[in-house]
Write a structure and sequence with these properties.
By secondary structure, the protein is mainly α. The chain has 8 helices and no strands. The chain is elongated and about 90 Å long.
Length: 329
């Protein structure tokens, strides 16, 4: 493909990526505002409901009972809505999407400025960039429905932030002698060891932490609307004093959920796993390319080292005996 056409295509893609960054940044701010609005509204409904129930217990009045029931029902409905959509997690998804698109734009700009002899084949890089855009669009959808990211999946997977690797395609063997772009047998073995460590240690570790955060978030998300509903039922049953205590308990559970931001914590851990999975995928993809189409070996190894939070130009990239490949998070 002619060089000028490639440059024009990357310029068009760069405009698209910049637009995605802006859209996801706006949505992140909007959904964070939703989170604050819901929390404040629930608090303003629950406190008067609990107060009305407590006063009704001391000085029975049908008006107070009705007020407590109506406010309690409103608070319970909003808590159920928040538990379903998880605004804090929605905001975190969009923040991560904006960051990943911004990283893609910066990577494209930097790669095109590199000497063509040192970077990978431009046509292949174009296909990878397009695959990354499509993967990010699927991983972090803009609309809430009908393709919203599942908030409590049965099995947690890393976020998918790049295109697929054709694992059926075999790795290209490299001789022990240096190739013209720096690829040697020792460099390949170092990368293979790093990818294996990412696959068996770093990624499972963050998936496990994401799963723990999901369980805690699920318990808290069920507790708050359940307690609020119980407070309404107790008011209807003529137990206002108990209803007041239960309503306060529901507000405490909701406030704890809001303060801990467990939905956002879950999303952070899931995206940490996705980040390391992307590094591992980058290694696997490169090792399946013909050597002459690859990026310069030294530059590629330095990129991987810095992506993992380790010092570049150090061999091996990950010290022997290290339990994890990455030290960035």
């Amino acid at each position: 493909m002619p060089a000028q056409r490639i440059v024009s295509q990357f310029e068009a893609l760069s405009v698209l990526v910049s637009d995605r960054v802006e859209m996801h940044s706006i949505l992140a701010l909007q959904r964070d505002n939703w989170n604050r609005l819901f929390h404040n509204t629930i608090t303003m409904a629950s406190v008067p409901a609990a107060t009305a129930s407590a006063v009704n217990g001391a000085l029975p009045a049908s008006g107070l009972r009705v007020v407590a029931i109506i406010l309690g029902m409103g608070a319970a409905a909003l808590m159920a809505l928040v538990s379903k959509f998880q605004p804090s997690q929605l905001a975190e998804e969009q923040r991560h999407a904006a960051r990943f698109f911004k990283r893609l734009g910066a990577d494209m700009e930097a790669t095109l400025q590199v000497d063509p002899r040192l970077r990978e084949d431009a046509s292949l890089y174009w296909e990878q960039s397009i695959g990354t855009v499509h993967a990010l669009d699927r991983a972090f959808p803009l609309p809430l429905t009908p393709i919203m990211v599942e908030k409590f999946p049965e099995q947690v997977h890393p976020s998918k932030i790049s295109g697929d690797v054709d694992l059926a395609r075999p790795e290209v063997e490299v001789s022990q002698h240096s190739h013209k772009n720096g690829w040697t047998w020792s460099a390949v073995e170092d990368l293979k060891r790093t990818a294996q460590l990412l696959r068996t240690s770093d990624i499972p570790e963050y998936i496990s932490m994401a799963n723990s955060a999901k369980i805690i978030n699920l318990i808290l998300s069920i507790s708050s609307p359940l307690f609020a509903t119980a407070g309404v039922v107790l008011n209807m049953a003529g137990c206002p004093s108990v209803a007041a205590a239960v309503t306060v308990g529901s507000l405490f559970a909701h406030t704890l959920t809001h303060a801990l931001q467990m939905g956002a914590v879950y999303e952070v851990y899931r995206n940490c796993a996705g980040y390391y999975a992307d590094v591992e995928k980058s290694i696997e993809q490169t090792l399946r390319l013909p050597v002459e189409q690859r990026e310069d070996a030294t530059i590629f190894q330095q990129k991987i080292s810095m992506s993992l939070g380790r010092r570049p130009a150090v061999t091996p990239m990950v010290p022997v005996g290290a339990k994890t490949a990455g030290v960035l998070f």
